[in-house]
Amino acid sequence: MRFSANSDARFQSTAAPKISSSLIGRAQAIAAEHDKLTQQIQHEYNGQIARKIGELSPVTNALKEWQSADKVTSRRNPSLSKPNNFQSITELRQLLHDPSTDAELRSLASEEIEQHSSRLPNLFSAIQSSLIPPDPFAALPCLLEIRPGAGGSEAGIFVGDLLRMYQAFCKRHSLHSTLVKLDSSSASKSSKSNLEDIQEAILEIATPGAYGILQCEAGVHRVQRVPATETQGRTHTSAASVLVLPSFPDQGGEELGFDDPNSDYYISPSDVRTDVMRARGAGGQHVNTTDSAIRLTHIPTSTVVAIQDGRSQHKNRQKAWQVLRAKIAQMRREAREEEKAKLRVSVVGVARMGRGDKVRTYNWGQQRVTDHRSGCTVNSLDDVLEGGGSLDEVMESVREWHKERDVQALVADEEAAAKRERGK
């Protein structure tokens, strides 16, 4: 595995990350709130407060570890430390660069800095991770929707390659997957090949936490290869889009707020047009004989979901509502993120890559897979397509890339807040 020269700075250098005072300040504020709630719950137990303490604990613990490493105990070098106090690494560095410091103290200070400062970057990284808000969908199952983009029938064939890759990945990681929808073109197989031209595939991964694992796959995937239908050996470029959606239970109850108009998961039945049709294509005796296919249209957003794979109209309707609810919830969340991203760009230039951007290239001739977000490249295309360890490497590099972007966003938020305070 290697990283390209144009990838993020995190993948170009092993230098220690810059410690942001704004993030430390945010962590200190959270730790203060944690301590206040801890004292409050000692007098009277409250379930809501207990949950809040649990949410704040990772930040508090990470901050304490960092503060501990940033200080030197008086027991190690009494001559360096203040009476009945600790001395920070910053103060030791000042002592080291003070011309009036004698040689012995300079040597002791240098020793302490070397022993303690090596831990600080990793501990600060832990603070950064703890400050990143958890994804509200991360613990949910997910729906993986794959559609062809530019490239004609070759793009549809590539959809099949990606579908089999994700099915193999799920099997290797013991993630329960079910093919919810598979639509092929009217000429489902090329006359010159035995490969299926797929127009849409939806894979449901029912294992809790699947969304958090696979959300890094969303975006446009590009393929460069000689198609099976190509007679002159020319390399073609095609693409397929991957959409990762949270999968919700049939009944959301109060927790998800299916019936709450203010919830992301709420859809007014009056906003949805339902069409019942006969199923089309290959699939057995029920096709073209029973009205089992369901098409839902969310009128305000023109979002259409059609399901016909099940023999039962009732089950197709349930699955269609599940997919529609997931799409609308994702759209609402992305709209909020887009607004935040615009604010951050105006403050410090932190941009965002959406799912419409090209995220990965699969090059058959070079047996290469390159992710354009993290810059990670692996020269083991076959292993990636088999859902093997090389795909794990690429996906993990993207998760780290996302983490870096989230940290940039945190810093941008803090700087924007500070700017507003100064403007008052």
Textual characterization of the structure:
With 424 residues, this protein is α+β, with helices and mostly antiparallel strands. Helices cover 44% and strands 20% of the residues. The protein is built from eleven helices and 14 strands. It has helices at 21-43, 47-69, 89-96, 103-117, 120-131, 153-172, 210-214, 253-256, 313-348, 381-385, 389-423; strands at residues 2-3, 71-72, 87-88, 142-148, 177-189, 196-205, 219-225, 236-246, 272-277, 293-298, 303-307, 358-363, 368-371, 376-378. The strands form three sheets. A nine-stranded mixed β-sheet has the order 1-14-13-12-7-8-4-6-5. A three-stranded antiparallel β-sheet has the order 9-10-11, covered by helices on one side. α2 runs antiparallel to α5.
What is this entry, summarized?
The protein is an alpha+beta fold. It has helices spanning 21-43, 47-69, 89-96, 103-117, 120-131, 153-172, 210-214, 253-256, 313-348, 381-385, 389-423; strands at 2-3, 71-72, 87-88, 142-148, 177-189, 196-205, 219-225, 236-246, 272-277, 293-298, 303-307, 358-363, 368-371, 376-378.
